Amino acid sequence: xxxxxxxxxxxxxxxxxxxxxxxxxxxxxxxxxxxxxxxxxxxxxxxxxxxxxxxxxxxxxxxxxxxxxxxxxxxxxxxxxxxxxxxxxxxxxxxxxxxxxxxxxxxxxxxxxxxxxxxxxxxxxxxxxxxxxxxxxxxxxxxxxxxxxxxxxxxxxxxxxxxxxxxxxxxxxxxxxxxxxxxxxxxxxxxxxxxxxxxxxxxxxxxxxxxxxxxxxxxxxxxxxxxxxxxxxxxxxxxxxxxxxxxxxxxxxxxxxxxxxxxxxxxxxxxxxxxxxxxxxxx
Amino acid sequence: xxxxxxxxxxxxxxxxxxxxxxxxxxxxxxxxxxxxxxxxxxxxxxxxxxxxxxxxxxxxxxxxxxxxxxxxxxxxxxxxxxxxxxxxxxxxxxxxxxxxxxxxxxxxxxxxxxxxxxxxxxxxxxxxxxxxxxxxxxxxxxxxxxxxxxxxxxxxxxxxxxxxxxxxxxxxxxxxxxxxxxxxxxxxxxxxxxxxxxxxxxxxxxxxxxxxxxxxxxxxxxxxxxxxxxxxxxxxxxxxxxxxxxxxxxxxxxxxxxxxxxxxxxxxxxxxxxxxxxxxxxxxxxxxxxxxxxxxxxxxxxxxxxxxxx
Lengths: 283, 310
Description:
With 283 residues, chain A is an all-alpha fold.
C-alpha cells in the first residue's frame, strides 16, 4: 500500500502509533465489505421491500381465474418484476450513500488512517454492497422458488440459478456505476435518481437502440450507435422471460461470457471510481 | 345616440339561453352516464382503461407465444391480428409475412449474443409451448393455454365493451381446457355488458352446438345474431366477418339437420359476405342439386365442410 493513497493527516496518525503489522489489502477490503453487509441487515430497507414483495405476490396468488389453481406465469412475472425493482432499489440506495455518508460524518478520515488506501475503500464498499445484494437476492429467489413450487409440478433449478446469477452480476455493474456516480454527483439523491433512470432506460430500450440508430440520419446515427456499443447491456442479464415461460436453460458458454462481460464492465467503472477518488479532496 | 338596455330583458334572455342549453345537454349527459360502466376501473382510469385493456389483450397473446413476441421496434406484419384470436375465429386475420422472422438477422455481435438470453423460437402454447411438448395439448395433456386467461380476464374487466376478449377466452376455455360452464358464464357476462352483440351470440351458439349438442338452441342464438346484424344501419369489416361466420354455421347446421332449403338460403346469404364467393357459389350449386334430388343427398357427402376442415 502506498503512502500517497492515504491523506496526510491519517498517514501521520498511522505512523505515530506503534501499530501492529499492516493487514493485507484483501483483509482490509473484506473488513470494509463486512461492515457494509452488517449495515444492510441493520437497516430496514431490505426487510420492508422483502415483505412488500411477499405481500403483493401472495395477494396476487390468492386470486383464482376460472377456478383454475394451476395458473402461475402471471404470478411469476409479477414476482420477478418486484424482485428486480426491489434489488435495484436496495443496490442503488445502499451504494449511493456509502461514500457521501462517510464524508459527511467525517468517518472517512479515521478509515483512511487505519491505514486503508482509497482504492481499498472503493473496492471494500463495492464488494460489501455486492455481497449484501447477493444475500438479498438469495432471500428473494428462495421466496420465488417456494411460490413456483406451490403452483407448478416441476422446479427448473438450473434456469432459476442462471437467472439469479445473471441478476447478481448485473447488479455488480449497477453498484459500480452508482459508486462512480457518488463521486461525480453532488448528492446521493441525484446520483440515485440518475442511476435508476439510466438502468431502467438500458433495460427497456438497450436491446433496440441499434434499430433506433439505423432509422436516424447522420450524425445522430453514429452517436446513437456509439452509445449502443459503449453502454453496459444490462438487458442481457434480464432472463425473466426464460424463467416465466419455462424455456430451457441458457448455454453455459454464453452464461459464462455474460458474467465475464459484467465483471469487466464493473472493473472499468470501479477503475474510473478509484481514479476519481484518488484525486478528490475530502474536505 | 346611446342605446339603453333593460336589465330585466337581458336577464330573461340569459335564463332562456340557460334553459335551452340545459334541455339540449341533459339527455346527452344521461345517455353518456348510462353508457358508462359503473366499475371501479372505469371510475379510476376513465377512457384510458381501453388502452390498458388492449395492452393486456396483447399480453395474453405474448403469453400464447411463450414470450416470443415482437416489440414496437420489430416488424409486426405477422402479428397484426393476435394469433390466439385468429385461431379462435374471433377476429379476421390480417397477418402477413413469416411469423418466425420478425427479428430479422442480427445486426451486430451484441444483438447476436443477446438472443441467447431471450425467447427466440416461435411456439404456441396449445402446440407444445417453449418446452416443446409434442402433440395437441388440451387439459388432459397438461397444456399451458390456461396461462393466457388472467390477462384476458383483466382485459375484460378493464374494458367490458371489448367483445373479442370474451370470444377468445370462451374459445380457449371450452376447446382446450374443457371448461364449458366457465366459458358460457364468461360469454353471458360479456352479453350483459354488450346486450345482443352478434359476435358473442355466435360464440354462445358454438357452445350450444359443439359442446352442449343442442342444435335447436344454437340455431336460435345464431339467428338472433343475424337479426341483430341485419338491424344495424352500417356494417364494419368485423361485422361482415361475423355475419359470414354466422351464415356459414347456420348453413352447416341446417344441412346436418336435413333442412336443405334452409341451408341453401343461408349459403346464398353467405355469398354476400364471404371472402371466397366462388367457393360458396360452387357449394350453392351442389346444394341446389341436392334440393332438386333429395333422395341422393346423404350425410356422408356434405356440401359444406365441417368446422375442423374449414
